Structure formats: C-alpha cells, structure tokens
Amino acid sequence: MANQAWGAPRLSGPQPVAKPELVAADAQSGPLIRTGHNRFADSFFYILVLACGICVLALVAIIVYELTSKSAPTWHAFGWKFFFQSDWDPVNDHYGALPFVYGTIVSSVLSLLIAVPLAIGVAVFITEMSPPWLRGPLAFTTELLAAIPSVIYGLWAIFVLVPLLRLYVQPWLARYFGWTGLFEGPPFGIGMLAAGIILAIMVVPIISAITREVMTAVPQQQREAVLALGATRWEMIRTGVLRNARAGIMGGVILGLGRALGETMAVTMVIGNRPEIAKSLFAPGYTMASVLANEFSEASGDLYLSALVEVGLALFLVTIIVNIIAQFLVWTVTRGTPARGHA
C-alpha cells in the first residue's frame, strides 16, 4: 500500500460492462451508420449478383437455341435416323452419326475401365494409408494432372504412348487375347486403345479428387466403430468408408465420364479419325468431339454444317445430363458440407 500512487484507485474484481441498450443507442446515434445508404447498397448488390446468375442461365439458353436452330435442316432431312445411320458422305449429302456415337462410347467406357481402379486406389491411399509427409505432395501431383493442357497429352501420346503400344503392348495383346476379337488387326499404335488410355490418364485426377472428398465426408466415428468391432484396416475401409461413400464415388465416376465424352484435342491426335464401327480396339475410330474439331472449318454446304451442329447439340445435351447426375450423386454423400480431415 505504501507503493500505491496517490490519486490512482486500486482496481480489483470484475469491471463494469456497459449495458447493451446503451451501446445500441450510441451506435445508432453515431455518424458511421446511414440506414438509407446501406439499404441502397444492399439492393444494388442483390441486383448485381442476380444479373450475374441470370447471365449464366441466359448463356446456356442461347447456346441451346443456336444449336437447335442451326441443326434444324438435318433434323428435318433425317430425323432420328441421323443417330442410327453409319453413312457419313459429305459429297452426296448423306450423314449418319452412329460411328461418332460408337467411338465416343467405346473410348469413354474404356477410359473408365482403366481410370476408376487407379483413381480409387490413389484416393484410398491418400485418405486412409498415406504417411503425412507424402499425403500433400501426392495429392498435389495427382491434381496437377488436371491442369495439363489436352494438346500436351496428345503430343505425349504421339511420341511416347503410340510407339509403346505399337512395339510392345499391342503385339502382346494380339498374341494372348486376340481370340476375343478385341485385339486383332495390324498394330499401328493409333486407334481406339490409344484414345482410351490417354482419356484414362486425363480423368484420373477428377475421379480421385471427388473420391477423396466423399471419403473425408464419412465421419471419423464410423471408422473407429468398425475398428472397435475387431475389423482389419482393409475391412474398415471397405465396409466403413467405401460402402458409405459409394454414391459419391459413383458421382465422381460419372463426372469423369462427362470429361471423357467432351475431350477433343488429345483424342483427335491419337484415335485415327476414321468414321467406321469396328470390334477391334486396334482399329481407328472417330468421336463426336473430334469430328467437330476436324471438319467444322471445312464444312461448305448448309446440310453438312447442320449435321455437324446437330452432333454438337447431342454432345452438349449428353454432357449436361451426365454432369447433373454426377453432381446429384456427390451431393447425396457430402450434403454440401466441406471435407473434414481425420487423424
């Protein structure tokens, strides 16, 4: 007490707090709050973001309208038969999109058969089994594959993948599995098999990223409960994680399918670009995206141009439907919640 300064009262115990109604009154009377200005700013911001959303919807509507109107001549000339005929003859104005539909389906399904096991395995390792020092670099490297331009994939396929297929892979497949009819014919390297492999490499990052997201959305208590019942790590991953995340994983697979359906440059550079339907994966083919890239600039007649636009319309609608289904399946697992890490 001797060291206490004169005129400085000693403070002890809780300090008085201003009443909330007094603070609110001071805030309302302060010079920084301008109710009319804030309401105008809120209304302006709402109108601005509403206009942005309407612009997106309007853009999609304009694309659909333009594709529909420009493809009307082909629709009136061929109708639904356009998608079930295999004759593509611009000289005589005979058009059928069946080879392009076939090539798109075969190359996309083949890419999923290769990419899905690899992508799910990578996602399971990163999420459940990877050491902490490797998890970040491996996830970054996997996602980096999605940032590589497709033309780079195409160049890599021409100079690296195609020679490997021609010299080693296709002769081996023809020797041991040629009896299936899927691996017969001359091993040129370029063909449906090369297109499927390059598409598989391109969709692995998408499927892996979605699978990691839905796996981390599974509660940690689910894993602990399965382990507490005496399950091994593999049983825990199979029954406690993958089973609960299967709808979201399927959504990621369908999302990867949407990417494979619309891929253009890389496929165009290695598929061979020949409108035919062949059983062998060694044979060249054509996809809806690659025919647009190759022939749109050369289309001279109105019916020829209309046929290409109708192919584009079909590809656009299929891609939109596939992505909507994929987003719905992913939402059924994540429910819009952010991914959560676990120990």
Mean pLDDT: 83
Low-pLDDT runs of 5+ residues are 1-12, 22-30, 337-343
| Form type | flat
What is the CATH architecture descriptor of the largest domain? Orthogonal Bundle
Structural account:
This protein is mostly helical. The protein has 2 domains: 14-81, no CATH class; 83-334, Orthogonal Bundle (MetI-like fold), CATH 1.10.3720. It is built from 13 helices and no strands.
Features:
343 residues, mainly alpha, MetI-like fold, 2 domains, 13 helices, flat
What's the helix and strand layout?
Layout: H1 20-29, H2 35-70, H3 72-78, H4 98-129, H5 132-144, H6 150-177, H7 192-216, H8 220-228, H9 233-242, H10 246-262, H11 265-270, H12 288-295, H13 302-334
Helix pairs in contact: 2-13, 3-13, 4-7, 4-10, 5-7, 7-10, 8-9, 10-13, 12-13
Concise summary:
This protein has helices at 20-29, 35-70, 72-78, 98-129, 132-144, 150-177, 192-216, 220-228, 233-242, 246-262, 265-270, 288-295, 302-334.
